[in-house]
Amino acid sequence: MSTFEMMQTLHQPAKTKIVHLVMDGLGGLPRDPGGKTELETAHTPNLDALAARSQLGLASPVGPGITPGSGPAHLALFGYDPYRFDIGRGLLEALGIGFEQLPQDVAARGNFCTVDENNCITDRRAGRIPTEVNERLVATLRDISLPGVQVFVETVKEYRFVLVLRPTAGQTLHVNIADTDPQKTGVPPLMAVAQDAASEPTAELINHWLTEARDRLRPHPPANSLNLRGLAKDPGLPHMADVTGLRAAAIAVYPMYKGVARLIGMDVLPVVGETVEDEVEVLRSRWSDYDYFYFHVKKTDSAGEDGDFHRKASIIEHVDEAVVPAILALDPDVLIVTGDHSTPAVLKTHSWHPVPTLFWSRYGRPDGIAEFGERACGRGSLGTFPATDEMALAMGHALRLAKYGA
Amino acid sequence: MSTFEMMQTLHQPAKTKIVHLVMDGLGGLPRDPGGKTELETAHTPNLDALAARSQLGLASPVGPGITPGSGPAHLALFGYDPYRFDIGRGLLEALGIGFEQLPQDVAARGNFCTVDENNCITDRRAGRIPTEVNERLVATLRDISLPGVQVFVETVKEYRFVLVLRPTAGQTLHVNIADTDPQKTGVPPLMAVAQDAASEPTAELINHWLTEARDRLRPHPPANSLNLRGLAKDPGLPHMADVTGLRAAAIAVYPMYKGVARLIGMDVLPVVGETVEDEVEVLRSRWSDYDYFYFHVKKTDSAGEDGDFHRKASIIEHVDEAVVPAILALDPDVLIVTGDHSTPAVLKTHSWHPVPTLFWSRYGRPDGIAEFGERACGRGSLGTFPATDEMALAMGHALRLAKYGA
Q1: What local confidence, expressed as pLDDT, does residue A291 receive?
Q2: List of chain B residues whose C-beta atoms are within 8 Å of the C-beta of residue A380
Q3: B65: which chain A residues are within 8 Å (Cβ-Cβ)?
Q4: pTM to 2 decimals?
Q5: ipTM of predicted complex
Q6: Across all residues in chain B, what is the average pLDDT?
């Protein structure tokens, strides 16, 4: 029995409100030895004042030293063990472009690649063709038809696309199917190979499509072939309402985050516009309708990925000014400020570093550390803790968990 | 392999002594934002001086955000995973009144309730009748006899009682039986329903008793019916001597704590009187007979449950003065000062907050924090740690665990 199961057994109704403010890729690193991180550099008077009244800690998204993708990192924040609950790469890619996948659909991430005259791969990413070229190629693949399924092909960006098969005859498609990408050059792209008998009909459909698609691409180097990876269906995750009893809403503007929230049954609230002010407006207007709000800020991560230390710091400053006081004005019972993972500008990518986390609650025991930053959080009483704990902690502090045992 | 199994494999004899001083419900909360907790308010020069020579931390009884009952919380302190080892509510209730349950007995927690003329429940707690009324009603139920079992009915308090069936014919009673309490008003009390075939004979006995008992109560509103919950037998927990090799003794004055200690095979030492001084006297007089002493102080929890912040603080002060120096004078090798869970006076009930813990050992690495309080412990080197770790840590520091591997 884990905390996750315990929540399902013990959750009880209450009138309390929980806000989970997630600055994507929040955690950072100093540019120079002895220097400050992006968060430490940012001038954040509101977060610092809140920190003084909160508990601090460093949230570990999946495990020590492990760099999470956005899917696992978010599942952890929502209390779902990302090693136990797996969102296939194909499905994540489809969620990322806002494709409304149905539970019976099979999705694959596609990569255009370059092959030579012997059909051996010379570039697994087709020279990172421009997205416009991708769109033209995808258009030429859309009318490949397969028996018993509807076929969707959608551009992601550069060399990446999504393939989705939707059964039209009520049949179940099984997808225990290996990637066709041999993960190296000098060898031909593979065909789809079913890993069990039940998946053979799906593999046959995929291979029919692969043959036709690769034929059509042949005259279009550098994108003259393709591969499929991470074939996946909706894993049927337990819904947050069942796990926690919370009426949960997601406020996010990027498709992938909305998609992950939808997978666990959150209501995804429409946001008019893309700014954090637009998101705050939604929070304010729907405040009375939900118990739990996942509030996602994307641009911290984008700045980190771009290696733009100062832009990341200034986005944090903007959240401090435009979001934090607005949330506090709504008088929540629990407010967690954190990230899904670290994206240090010096690394220009997601990293394994645990994520600075501020946990404020009406019934908290403040650490009395008046600063929100990586090192301040390292001194906090939450210590370095599993991100999966956040939801149960929030539930406890929101008086939403009954006593365990007599 | 868990630490619990490891202890069983690695324990080795030694002459060292461990004292586990448990102030029930020790953890607290400030009354006002920025204020001090009960423990932080208490003047505790002895504990503060000991803290300076100890490691500090916050013990998590069962899991993040989870509020434990006394049974699971104590199992955790003794090293038993409370999610894995379950003490049924009926058994705990019997332990709580000092009923000497035998391993073959079946115990249930009983609640008197009020039903209307259609036998529908109008009050699940029978208006919280006075304990004296409970005693009179229990007396009228005592002579209901059942074939093949001896029947005990015992008052707990107000609307609560205990029913115990003891087989007299050597038969085994199985108790996978649902509660008869429908957990709501407006519907009739239920009969006992076996959840498996083996439990059907027991359910039949219980239903025989229920029918007769409810008939007899009919003329006695508001307690004119009853329900049974948490039907349970002794779960046959591994004994502490087998897990740790320790000769373990419990010094406690309240029945439930003595009962839980007895379930894991501790010797429960008789205490003449009810004060902590009486308990210290027992510790002193039996010091040479045991390796491990569980020393329980109940009144911190009672004060917390009463919402009496100052009484809780003054009980802690009294323990600091009357217990801590007396234990140190006996020259233990390991002394842990902690609680089983938090009972903040502001919440008037058990809570999910981790418990301030001081770990002193001859071979410790002191944190050098000269204060015993929630925030001081939040800065300690033990961090927030599972309470189940305390026993293995104590065993290690007491030189009672052999090396693992070569």
Answers
A1: 98
A2: 378
A3: 3, 7, 389, 392-397, 401
A4: 0.91
A5: 0.89
A6: 96
